[in-house]
Write a structure and sequence with these properties.
Radius of gyration: 21 Å
CATH architecture of the largest domain: 3-Layer(aba) Sandwich
Largest sheet: 7 strands, mixed
Bound molecules: pyridoxal-5'-phosphate
Number of domains: 2
Shape: globular
Low-confidence stretches: none
Order of helices and strands: HEEEHHHEHEHHEHEEEHEEEHHEEHEEEH
Number of strands: 17
CATH class of the largest domain: Alpha Beta
CATH superfamily of the largest domain: Type I PLP-dependent aspartate aminotransferase-like (Major domain)
Structural class: alpha/beta
Oligomer: single chain
Number of helices: 13
Length: 399
């Protein structure tokens, strides 16, 4: 099938939950993606903050190929070495003590919510606890994850969702605390809000929330599905805040392309027993070999040091763009998770930047987010900035 035929066929068989760009991606290499017809793109989206090491990393590919030939799946009724090793590496990197591997980020959120509720249930012997979540948050598309997602449009058509969720202003300590009562089992938030517009937690806010949760025995759940795994310059973003969560969720770059996520916790919060939770595929040998390899690559390449350095360059270049165009109204972020806010819709700018050969993605209606593979170099930043400036200038000429 040629490109147009694949697109037409896709439109007829795939459920229409995405407005897809008319691109048929075929293969990738490093920072670049290629369509079936050979069109080349610099990729500043990384499969939505997934491909930390870029495309076609030989060590990663070889490890997965070897595991395919050995054992792809067993079940969680038995042990397998990659899952034990991957869990050990995750604990070492995060400070957590117990891990449950899932098949996606949303499932990691489901597990984290269940774990917090079970912790409350064990403590109080009753199950009607509530959860405080943040406005403008995004935690995924399953029923539990949608229930704690702070965007009404994502929730409304699917109600009734799980009960007992209250929303508070992100970065507003008093508002969060005002929503808490004796039945609150958990406070959940992203350390850096992604989909909601690239808003990092304020240092003082997160530290005060941590203290409040400890003092009141409320579980603090940090969702680092997007901002974790090295993206902000440390393995996990909270490591820059001098705090730790009680429960942590991860996915995306955890497996760098294979479907794996996890929820992890401190021993004191490991409130589940056999029968409370499970997954057929979760943590199978193939995906855990990917997790193992990803941690090994982080160690070997010292990639977080590179992120710290290169993210400063990206910051400086985006500051220049902010200064040069009035339609850019704000620039914020942490590490290689940055965003530009526009006074106009971001969609047409993203579309034009793609036409110029660089893939960007939006976050909300008027924000462009920059979440490239972590191996990005200065020359790639320069190339992206060129494509972006050209797109903005075309928009200004035509408006
Ligand atoms: C912060 C955050 N949490 C949860 C999710 C859901 O992850 P998944 O799409 O793997 O279910 C996402 C996905 O974008 C996310 O950014």
């Amino acid at each position: 099938m040629n490109k147009q035929e694949i697109i037409a066929q896709g439109e007829s068989v795939l459920l229409h939950t995405y407005n897809r760009f008319p691109m048929v991606l075929d293969h990738g290499d490093g920072m670049y993606l290629y369509e079936t017809d050979g069109t080349k793109y610099l990729d500043f989206a990384a499969g939505i903050a997934v491909f930390a090491f870029g495309y076609n990393n030989k060590e990663y590919n070889d490890a997965l190929k070897a595991q395919v030939d050995k054992l792809v799946h067993t079940s969680n009724l038995y042990y397998n070495e990659p899952s034990v090793h991957a869990a050990e590496l995750f604990c070492k990197a995060s400070g957590m003590e117990r891990v449950f591997f899932t098949n996606s980020g949303a499932e990691a959120i489901e597990g984290a919510l269940k774990l917090a509720r079970k912790y409350y249930f064990n403590k109080h012997g009753v199950s009607d606890s509530n959860v405080i979540a943040m406005d403008h948050s995004f935690h995924g598309r399953t029923m539990g994850a949608v229930s704690v997602t702070g965007k009404q449009a994502y929730r409304e058509p699917f109600e009734p969702l799980i009960g007992g969720v209250r929303f508070a202003d992100f970065n507003n300590y008093d508002d969060v605390v005002s929503k808490v009562d004796a039945k609150t089992c958990a406070i959940i938030m992203e350390t850096v809000q992604g989909e909601g517009g690239i808003y990092p937690a304020d240092r003082e806010f997160l530290q005060k929330i941590r203290k409040f949760c400890t003092a009141n025995d409320i579980v603090l759940i940090l969702d680092e599905i997007q901002c974790g795994m090295g993206r902000t310059g440390t393995m996990f973003a909270y490591q820059q805040y001098g705090i730790e969560p009680d429960i942590l969720t991860s996915a995306k770059a955890l497996g760098c392309g294979v479907p794996v996520g996890c929820f992890a916790c401190k021993e004191a919060f490991a409130a589940m027993v056999p029968g409370d939770h499970g997954s057929t595929y979760g943590g199978n040998p193939l995906v855990c070999k990917a997790v193992e390899t990803v941690f090994g690559l982080f160690e070997k390449t010292k990639l977080t040091d590179h992120v710290k350095e290169i993210s400063g360059y990206l910051w400086d270049e985006l500051e220049k763009v902010t200064a040069d165009y009035e339609i850019v109204t704000a620039h914020r972020g942490l590490g290689l998770m940055q965003g530009l806010e526009f006074s106009v819709a971001a969609g047409p700018i993203v579309k034009e930047t793609i036409a110029n050969g660089c893939i960007l993605i939006s976050a909300g209606t008027n924000i462009i987010r920059f979440v490239p593979p972590l191996i990005v170099e200065k020359k790639h930043v320069d190339e992206m900035i060129g494509c972006l400036r050209k797109a903005i200038e075309k928009l200004l000429v035509n408006s």
